[in-house]
């Protein structure tokens, strides 16, 4: 249980980080979906036997998942809960804590905004489907992502299956367009107000997670530096346990990484060589680091 929730937490932190940085890099755009690139991720582990969705819903696994995500969301203006539809649909429900005003915003614009945000994190959700089956033996085929206003009214809903393909027309900028703001190097961007705002925004979101983040550049490598509270217990795990917890991270965030690469090239004229994720304990000890190349 501890390692599953640990992997879930890491995935959420990654998704939050991309949400803040990715939306800042998209030429400074802002929309109702700026905080939506987050989903639950379960860690694949030894099967616990076959369960129905209702069995899983009534178990401590579901409550642990909700508790963990809601602790993460404590300062994000959202709450999270799971529902199920037998025999094969699990629903991730994200509800705003304050009512959003969509007056003057067309349904098409709402759909485009949320669809683009979901596309960036779809690989994580697709991975969830198979890992729920592997871990719990669930007959899961679909995860429905549902976003609710504070009054419970539906804002947006989308089903994601294992063969889900991101939309090619989701409102993202054409990479052939001239960059909105040019920077000579990645280090120049790191020294900009946009980078400062990205770090500030991300750390506000992560305020209840036990982690803080800093951004840096290693040549053309975009570096996420996560400082992890010892309260999370990562510093007490063995090297093997850390590798197990972090291993799914790269694959589950691949779509978000590719979006980051595209956004930086479009918005700033910068071609990133890759992304590095480094996690440090309170005393500065490196716990884990992985590079994902821009191929």
How would you sum up this structure, described in words?
This protein is α/β, with parallel strands linked by helices and 295 residues long. The protein is built from nine helices and eight strands. It has helices spanning 2-25, 53-57, 60-72, 107-136, 186-190, 193-205, 239-246, 249-252, 254-268; strands at residues 78-85, 89-96, 142-148, 154-161, 211-218, 221-228, 274-280, 286-293. The two termini are 35 Å apart.
Quote the beta fraction.
15-25%
Number of H- or I-type helical stretches: 9
Largest beta sheet, briefly? 4 strands, mixed
- Give the integer mean of the pLDDT values: 75
Q: Strand sequence of the main sheet, in spatial order?
A: 1-2-3-4
- End-to-end Cα distance, whole Å, is 35 Å
Helix and strand sequence? HHHEEHEEHHEEHHHEE
Structural class: alpha/beta
E-strand count: 8
Helix content: 25-40%
Shape: globular
């Amino acid at each position: 249980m501890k390692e599953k929730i640990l992997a879930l937490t890491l995935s959420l932190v990654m998704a939050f980080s991309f949400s803040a940085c990715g939306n800042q890099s998209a030429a400074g755009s802002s929309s109702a979906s700026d905080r939506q690139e987050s989903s639950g991720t379960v860690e694949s582990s030894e099967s616990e036997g076959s369960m129905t969705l209702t069995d899983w819903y009534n178990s401590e696994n579901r409550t642990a998942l909700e508790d963990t995500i809601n602790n993460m969301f404590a300062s994000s203006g959202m709450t999270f809960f799971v529902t199920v539809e037998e025999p094969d649909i699990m629903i991730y429900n994200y509800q705003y804590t304050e009512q959003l005003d969509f007056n003057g915003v067309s349904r098409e614009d709402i759909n485009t905004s949320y669809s683009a945000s979901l596309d960036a994190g779809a690989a994580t959700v697709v991975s969830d489907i198979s890992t729920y089956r592997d871990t719990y033996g669930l007959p899961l085929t679909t995860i429905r992502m549902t976003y609710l206003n504070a009054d419970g009214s539906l804002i947006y809903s989308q089903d994601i299956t294992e063969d889900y393909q991101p939309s090619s027309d989701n409102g993202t900028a054409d990479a052939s367009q001239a960059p909105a703001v040019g920077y000579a190097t990645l280090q120049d961007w790191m020294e900009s107000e946009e980078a400062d705002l990205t770090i500030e925004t991300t750390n506000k979101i992560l305020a209840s997670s036990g982690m803080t983040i800093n951004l840096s550049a290693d040549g053309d490598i975009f570096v996420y530096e996560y400082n992890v509270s010892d309260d999370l217990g990562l510093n007490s795990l063995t090297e093997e346990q850390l590798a197990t917890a972090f291993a799914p991270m790269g694959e589950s965030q691949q779509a978000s990484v590719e979006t980051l690469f595209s956004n930086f090239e479009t918005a700033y004229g910068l071609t990133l060589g890759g992304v590095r994720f480094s996690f440090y304990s309170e005393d500065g000890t490196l716990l884990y680091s992985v590079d994902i190349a821009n191929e």
